[in-house]
Q: What sequence folds into this?
């Protein structure tokens, strides 16, 4: 894409805001590592974020801001062309976003988001926005994707459903979409499961994290069959959770309206997306910074 150039009103220099070319990856990784010294990952994590694992090396992986060639701002993108219930879709998940302090308050962040959201064929997601960034995100046209989760606790008794911990061994019984997303996330800190229900197979991809001292959270990153999961959610939770100090958590868009659960929790900051491109329920947490870095969902 062509760069978007805007005037910098402080000293009338021109800033260049553009999609980063492939050869700038190493420079951007160094910039991000320096900008976020408290990040819980090293340089390899920044390289993974910028690797275009799911989209190819020539697709956008960041929007940069330069002042006379000097890098002064970055907004990372984890891009993917991925299968959904409605077919293949182009998506980009916003990751680490930083602008040097001297360039803030000039509308630079809004211009970066304008460039990020310019392609009507790409759905942009923001799963972990800071509260202070929410007004900027909403002004850029993002809408709330989800604002609450459903939670099931481990129950007493033996599970009635069988959970397969190696779904790819099921062969043709596993749907093409389920198979593809499992293969695309091989080697990441995720647990794929396929649960046998009386009405067919339901595939889940889970992230297991100790987010609270009292229990372990099995966070649902992907649900292969929403109606099936919604119908058998309690029994599936019993089959999935191997311990009593554990819960199964799923964002509300992953299930049908009226699905029963043990409790609901409101997010401190909602998830966001650019609407009108694909259905909200077709957006899960895969192909994102969350799974690349093994982050906890809050």
A:
């Amino acid at each position: 894409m062509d760069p978007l150039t805007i005037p910098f009103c402080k000293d009338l220099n021109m800033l260049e805001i553009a999609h980063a070319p492939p050869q700038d990856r190493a420079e951007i990784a160094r910039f991000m590592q320096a900008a976020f010294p408290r990040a819980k990952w090293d340089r390899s994590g920044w390289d993974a974020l910028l690797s275009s694992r799911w989209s190819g090396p020539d697709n956008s992986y960041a929007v940069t801001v330069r002042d006379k060639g000097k890098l002064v701002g970055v907004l990372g993108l984890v891009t993917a062309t991925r299968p959904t219930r409605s077919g293949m879709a182009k998506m980009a998940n916003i990751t680490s976003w930083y602008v040097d302090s001297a360039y803030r308050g000039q509308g630079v962040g809004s211009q970066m988001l304008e460039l990020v959201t310019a392609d009507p064929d790409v759905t942009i997601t923001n799963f972990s926005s800071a509260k202070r960034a929410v007004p900027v995100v909403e002004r850029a046209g993002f809408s709330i994707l989800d604002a609450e989760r459903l939670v099931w606790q481990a129950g007493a008794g033996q599970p009635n459903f069988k959970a397969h911990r190696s779904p790819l061994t099921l062969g043709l019984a596993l749907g093409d979409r389920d198979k593809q997303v499992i293969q695309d996330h091989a080697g990441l800190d995720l647990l794929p499961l396929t649960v046998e229900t009386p009405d067919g197979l339901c595939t889940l991809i889970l992230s297991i994290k100790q987010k609270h001292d009292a229990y372990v959270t099995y966070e649902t990153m992907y649900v292969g069959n929403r109606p099936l999961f919604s119908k058998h959610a309690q029994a599936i939770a019993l089959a999935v959770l191997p311990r009593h100090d554990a819960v199964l958590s799923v964002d509300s868009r992953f299930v049908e309206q009226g699905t029963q659960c043990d409790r609901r929790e409101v997010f401190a900051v909602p998830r966001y997306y650019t609407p009108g491109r694909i259905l909200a329920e077709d957006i899960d947490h895969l192909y994102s910074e969350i799974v690349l870095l093994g982050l906890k969902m809050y």
About this structure: Confidence is low (pLDDT under 50) at residues 5-12. The chain is about 20% helix and 35% strand. The two ends are 34 Å apart (CA to CA). The chain has two domains: 4-142, 149-267.
